[in-house]
Amino acid sequence: MFATGIENSIPTIDHGKTRRDEMAECGHYERWREDFDCVQEIGINYLRYGPPLHRTFLAPNRFDWEFSDLTFADLKRRGITPIVDLCHFGVPDWIGNFQNPDFPRLFAHYCGEFAERFPWVQLYTPMNEMFICAVFSAKYGWWNEQKKDDKSFVTALKHIVKANVMGMIEILKRRHDAIFIQSESSEYFHADSPGAIGRAEVLNQMRFLSLDLNYGRRVDSGMYQYLLDHGFTREEYEWFLEHRLKQHCILGNDYYRTNEHRVFEDGHTVAAGETFGYSEITRQYYERYQLPVMHTETNLVEGPHGDEAVKWLWKEWANVLRLRNVGIPTVGFTWYSLTDQVDWDTALRERNGNVNPLGLFDLDRKIRNVGRAYKQLIADWRNVLPAQSVCLVVPIKKLSEHDEHDAAGRDLNERALTDG
After folding, report:
1. Among residues 199, 240, 198, which one has the least CA distance to residue 219?
2. Which of 24, 62, 144, 236 has the most other CB atoms within 10 Å of its CB?
3. pTM tops 0.90, yes or no
4. Of the candidates 111, 143, 149, 261, the residue with the CA atom closest to the CA atom of residue 199
5. Which GO molecular-function terms appear in the entry (predicted)?
């Protein structure tokens, strides 16, 4: 599955006073038809895409689907399969932030309403980058609740992952063959010195928390103590073990040069750059979860030579092929995102208006060098990989087949969920 994405990030900064809306700042609301043209120009059939949550989910039981109706109908007409991104780093003002214990229930209702309205959609990422969302919102103090303590982090993580699981449950009630592609940051922490080994080991356990809970896997003993020490109850932990939907999931993971960290003895960290690389870190995640893998995000700034992003694309693709060649079932690759982004260099926490040249296209919708390279890569490899793959075939239905997804299938699913 060769993919790209149109980012719908909506975190708040300035203690909730300022909303960052990447769709607005990158011109998507006005130029969405051009953006879909760009997707087709590259030859991409899969698009990470979703409604702007804050503009769609207006209040309990109040929704504005106008923009989604237009855009999703056009995606279906074009034959572009969406991987629907339902919550990307922020919530509507009326919900507040990720400390709100009502968020999982409210979000699950939203997921169900979306799946009811767009029954032809099969692929979902309910909550984007759950670990990063909790860290940036409640550990680093950058977004949303802007907290910096362990209890707030654990609370945010608990609510975010529970919302993801509850959202999957509601979608499956309406689409029994839904497939959930996590988009989660793949991290690694390198000890700078012997004195930093202990801290690095803790961080390397913590990086798995969101996916452990999401997949109903028992966390490491040290992390179990950490969760209980910071507000997690035993009953809440058991809930995740009892609601295990791993069999419906693909392990989507993201990798950037900032995903590896150097840990110092005093506990502070700095970016380590590409040290192990995508294939080695993904192998660690695969060994833990034993799920098919999709590379769901990567990019690099187009630098002064104009070929920096092209070289990074080649390197990441070589890593993907390496995983496949050693027998790890790898089913997709994504350059993220379609267009350049605004203020990615400060993780959206500062409103500077800096346009970061990361996209396949610039904000004038002119193709970049990496866009041309990705178009060629897709053309070269699209018909080669299926014939040589020893991996599973992802059971994705063509959009044209949806009309055959009749009520009998839904009834069967409802009985299965009830009985199961």
Report:
1. 240
2. 144
3. yes
4. 261
5. hydrolase activity, hydrolyzing O-glycosyl compounds
Tracing tokens 């390198």 back to the chain, one arrives at: 190
Dist. CA 1–CA 290, nearest whole Å: 19
Kindly report the number of other CB atoms within 10 A of residue 363's CB atom: 16
Pairing of the two strands 57-59 and 62-63: antiparallel
Q: How many CB atoms lie within 10 A of CB 41?
A: 14
Could you tell me how far CA 284 lies from the centroid of its own chain?
19
The answer to whether the beta carbons of residues 15 and 97 sit under 8 Å apart is no
Query: Which domains does the chain show, CATH number per domain?
Result: 2-419 (3.20.20.80)
Closest CA to 360 of 296, 302, 320: 302
Listed in sequence order, the residues at least 6 apart from 174 whose beta carbon sits closer than 8 Å to its beta carbon are 112, 115, 116, 119, 410
pLDDT tens figures, 150-170: 999 999 999 999 999 999 999
Q: How far apart are the first and last CA of the chain?
A: 31
Report the alpha-carbon distance of residue 355 to residue 340 in Å, rounded. Answer: 7
Reference 137, options 169, 91, 176; nearest CA is 91
